[in-house]
């Protein structure tokens, strides 16, 4: 039997609560489908800092590099507000992304019909919504140098972050966008701010060139990222794939989350380039939401973003398409049945906690796998 090695990094806050539901899914898919998943847990974020003074240890970083896929919960929280910048919980996630080479971050925003009322927009604007934000994840202002606070010695300081993109970084994310669009509705919208940023000018130029050379079958348009944010709430269904840089992608995907009803609904996949010899790509799957300190430890978190991230793992790392479809159908069925965590609660529905939501989805998933 194939064995598939997973590294689970639950992290902080609601991360471990959500990850517990993934462990139930792993047991289910192994039992019902002989999937051969072997998982081990390691620390990341504040919990790793507390244990060994770094947001991820070198040993755990090696485990992540060697795993077939990594599942990540969430990191951060007020407990670690005072720790040195280099060791803050979020640094663990950034190191994983950078060292694993995870340049392509897929953030699908799908509005399940049962949740159209939970969106902050009118039903007709979001019902049936299925868009994909493709966020560049290893470049831009997150990683550009210099990045520092300089003491100017006159009672003033200067904070510096640097936005940098090189041609190859834009080319590979553009290709990823066009390839994804080919499997969807064939449309890519590229967002930057070429009116104020040099990286925006280059981004626009490179995306246009890749399109002209290699993807004439795909429809491409360009938007300034601020106007793109506006269009995303004005009429989100006009989009198919949105490709954008690291920082704009971070913000636009949180906005897109609310179109689907809750930040607790949005999964993501972070993918590296295929290995030239084996064709395998490093990958990490994580919900878009954070550690939600306001509800952590109370069993209130919506585990669907984490569970749907597991479905993306089945699809993108293991080509287990039928199983991924079954899991997504299980989520839809449970929502249709009116089962809701607090963040997506609606009149006439039944409110449950994290574990009960997970159990319901796992049971529906098992039924579909067994059928
Ligand atoms: P957050 O995403 O943690 O929470 C924002 C709001 O959404 C909160 O009210 C929270 O209760 C709610 N929410 C989030 N996920 C939910 C879920 N699954 N179910 C129900 N409600 C949910 O963002 P924040 O409060 O700005 O950040 C808290 C911490 O998380 C910070 O330290 C931040 O850096 C970190 N963070 C981590 C990640 C990550 O690990 N990938 C992502 C974003 C933020
Ligand atoms: C996300 C988060 C991260 C980011 C933080 C926690 C570093 O907000 O994954 O969206 O800014 O990329
Ligand atoms: Mn974010």
From TrEMBL:
Its signal peptide is: none
Q: Where does this one sit in the cell?
A: Cytoplasm
**According to its UniProt record, which reaction does this protein catalyse?**
(2R,3S)-3-isopropylmalate + NAD(+) = 4-methyl-2-oxopentanoate + CO2 + NADH
Q: What functional role does this protein have?
A: Catalyzes the oxidation of 3-carboxy-2-hydroxy-4-methylpentanoate (3-isopropylmalate) to 3-carboxy-4-methyl-2-oxopentanoate. The product decarboxylates to 4-methyl-2 oxopentanoate.
The protein's organism comes out as: Aureimonas populi
Alphabetical UniProt keywords? Amino-acid biosynthesis, Branched-chain amino acid biosynthesis, Cytoplasm, Leucine biosynthesis, Magnesium, Manganese, Metal-binding, NAD, Oxidoreductase
| EC number(s) per entry | 1.1.1.85
The entry's substrate-binding residues are 97, 107, 135, 226
Name the UniProt record assigns to this protein: 3-isopropylmalate dehydrogenase
- Known SUPFAM superfamilies for this protein? Isocitrate/Isopropylmalate dehydrogenase-like
Q: What is its main location?
A: cytoplasm
């Amino acid at each position: 039997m194939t064995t598939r090695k997973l590294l689970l990094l639950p992290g902080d806050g609601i991360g471990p609560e959500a990850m517990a539901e993934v462990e139930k899914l792993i047991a289910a898919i192994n039992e019902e489908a002989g999937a051969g998943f072997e998982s081990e847990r390691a620390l990341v974020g504040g919990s790793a800092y507390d244990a060994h003074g770094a947001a991820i240890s070198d040993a755990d970083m090696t485990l992540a590099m060697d795993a077939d896929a990594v599942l990540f919960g969430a990191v951060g929280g007020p407990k670690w507000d005072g720790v040195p910048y280099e060791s803050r919980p979020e640094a663990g996630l950034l190191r994983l992304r950078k060292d694993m080479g995870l340049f392509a971050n897929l953030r699908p925003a799908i509005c399940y019909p049962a949740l159209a009322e939970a969106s902050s927009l009118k039903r007709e604007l979001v019902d049936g919504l299925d868009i994909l934000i493709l966020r560049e994840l290893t470049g831009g202002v997150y990683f550009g140098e210099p990045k520092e606070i300089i003491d100017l010695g006159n009672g003033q300081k200067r904070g510096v972050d640097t936005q940098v993109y090189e041609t190859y970084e834009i080319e590979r994310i553009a290709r990823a966008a066009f390839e994804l669009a080919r499997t969807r509705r064939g449309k890519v919208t590229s967002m930057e701010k070429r009116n104020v940023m040099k990286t925006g000018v280059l981004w626009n130029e490179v995306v246009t060139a890749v399109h002209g050379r290699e993807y004439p079958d795909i429809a491409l348009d360009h938007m300034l990222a601020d106007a793109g944010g506006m269009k995303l709430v004005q009429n989100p269904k006009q989009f198919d794939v949105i490709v954008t840089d690291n920082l704009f992608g971070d913000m636009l995907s949180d906005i897109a989350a609310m179109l689907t009803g809750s930040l607790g609904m949005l999964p993501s996949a972070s993918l590296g380039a295929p290995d030239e010899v084996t064709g395998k790509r490093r990958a990490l799957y994580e919900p878009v939401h954070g550690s939600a300190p306001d509800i952590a430890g109370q069993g209130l978190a919506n585990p669907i973003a984490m569970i749907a991230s597991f479905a993306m793992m089945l699809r993108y790392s293991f080509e287990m398409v039928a199983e991924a479809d079954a899991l997504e159908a299980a989520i839809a069925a449970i929502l249709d049945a009116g089962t809701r965590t607090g963040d997506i609660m609606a009149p006439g529905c039944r409110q449950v906690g994290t574990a009960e939501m997970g159990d319901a989805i796992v049971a529906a998933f098992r039924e579909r796998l067994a059928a």
